[in-house]
Amino acid sequence: MAPRLGLTRTTVHTWRERWRVAAPHLDLPEAEEPDAPPLAVRIEACLADAPRSGTPATFTPEQLTQLIALACEAPQDSGRPVTHRTPKELADELVQRGIVERISPRTIGRFLKKADLKPHRARYWLNHDRATDPQAV
């Protein structure tokens, strides 16, 4: 089953074990335990990831999405007198817009690299003439 779902055997085993442990609690009729949470809440609790060790993420997915959107905007849309955005420019704009409290240019660079974005080359990519070179990526 694991290869068919594109998962490892360990992952499938983990989820099957979670369901085996949770099954007795899910089968309880709500009338038997009036203080028990509704079935939907119990199922969500069973499906939630277990707490992980380590430091929680500093930035939310929404903040990262806004960073990517900002990196794709023209700097002139924000009133910036530059032709392309640098990580420092992006960090300043994110703080100015209130998207994040603070963020370093290096962190911006890591996020852009992970997303394979190069805002300094956007002008060339957006204006590429694909009619003359249809194989260009």
Quaternary status of these chains? Answer: single chain
Estimate what percentage of residues fall within beta strands.
Answer: under 5%
**Total discrete domains:** 2
- The amount of helix comes to 40-55%
Question: H/E series, N to C?
Answer: HHHHHHH
SS-based structural class?
Answer: mainly alpha
Terminal CA distance reads 37 Å
What is the average per-residue confidence, as pLDDT, rounded to a whole number?
80
Number of β-strand runs: 0
Cα-atom radius of gyration: 24 Å
Spans of at least 5 consecutive residues whose pLDDT stays below 50 are: none
- Helix count, per DSSP? 7
| Shape by Cα distribution | elongated
Task: Give a short account of the largest sheet.
Answer: none
Provide an overview of this structure.
The chain has 137 residues and is mainly α. It has two domains: 2-47, no CATH class; 61-126, no CATH class. Helix content is 50%, strand content 0%. The chain contains seven helices and no strands. It has helices spanning 2-5, 9-26, 39-47, 61-72, 87-96, 105-114, 122-126. The chain is elongated. It starts with a helix and ends in an 11-residue tail after the last helix.
In short:
The chain is mainly alpha-helical.
Annotation keywords:
single chain, 137 residues, mainly alpha, 2 domains, 7 helices, 0% strand, elongated
Sequence-ordered SSE layout with sheet pairings:
Layout: H1 2-5, H2 9-26, H3 39-47, H4 61-72, H5 87-96, H6 105-114, H7 122-126
Helix pairs in contact: 2-3, 5-6
